[in-house]
Design goal:
103 residues, alpha+beta, 3-stranded mixed sheet, 3 strands, 34% helix
Amino acid sequence: MSMQQQIQSKIADAIACKHLNVVNESHMHSRGEDSHFKVIVVSEEFSGKRLLQRHRQINEVLKDELANHIHALAIHTFTPDEFSEQEGNVADSPMCLGGSKLD
């Protein structure tokens, strides 16, 4: 199973998602390793939670991957209403400034 599939599976198993998209952005940053990802998670579970709480929830689900495999993870969390207000648009990830960046 690829790292992208592993991330997708772990989040889907842990959170009741209305929408889940895991984007492998490694090609923009690394030297052939799957180490840079963006996750977009839409769930009712985020209602009433602050952004920091939502991100901590994702970080907890992916703690092994973050400790051992992932160099960068852009997290975008929304309630269904927030995602609708954004019209499904999510900010681009910033360029990587460390670790396995391209020279």
